[in-house]
Predict the 3D structure of the following.
Amino acid sequence: MQVAAPTPDEVQCPKCSAVLAPDQNRCGQCGYTLEEARLYDPKRFVLLGILFSSLVPIFISASNWGQIGNRRAQWLAVASGLVGFTALFTAFFYVPDQYAGVGRGLGHAINIPIALILRQRQQRLFQSGLRFGARSRSLFPGILGGIGLVVVAIVGSLLVTGGAGEQVRLRHGLRLLKEGQPVEAARVFEPMAGPNSKNGAAVFNLALCHFVLHRYEEAEVGVERYLKMAGPDADAYAFLYQIHLARGRPDEAAATAVKARQLDPNVFIRLFGTDSPGLVEADSIGS
Ligand SMILES: [Zn+2]
């Protein structure tokens, strides 16, 4: 059937596009109603966005979309809000110090356009929702839910930057090792190579430090542990070969050299400059 285009005051049924009768809150055409729905009023979105970040307007919008049955928009809003803000908080971590103020200012300013766009999109939804019988609800749970999203995004970015922090410390430890400071380097690697560590690079580099310090037994334990964590690895076997030589076990050394060459025929040339290396000078390890 033909439906007349609605005037600005008229409200169309979202399901069948019929114009809602002025004294009704149920579509005369298909029976659509929102009598059970509870909607947040979007009019304070910009203020909320400035006070708490736009994750509050995002959470509130998602809740409203859920209330009118638009699950896709609901989860899209929550997911993109979380991903976007986790990325934003993570980016703050990498902004160089001299740009930190500008970066944070820009990061904060983005809340205003997001809140404005959502307010514009939600105002129609809210107004027509009320006409279909929905009731307005207190903003309080919406604010709490939005703050909950902020916490999740912060925790997410800490997990990302925590991993990055380990990368920074690893590089620092390797630099110390190359500069001939194995004791200091070991001190950097040790906290990352604890009994429950999954950081193979820290375990391996700590073993290197032990080797340089002539602590061959600890070096061997470390490299064996690394091989269990990371699986067969030519460099680790080549290193283990050196440990066997250092501990006076030429037969084990030869067997380990075979394993290393099976994984990478050039491993000894690559690491030690010769295919049949003797025990290297501890000082040359890591350089
Ligand atoms: Zn309808």
Q: What stands out?
A: The chain has two domains: 38-163, 178-277.
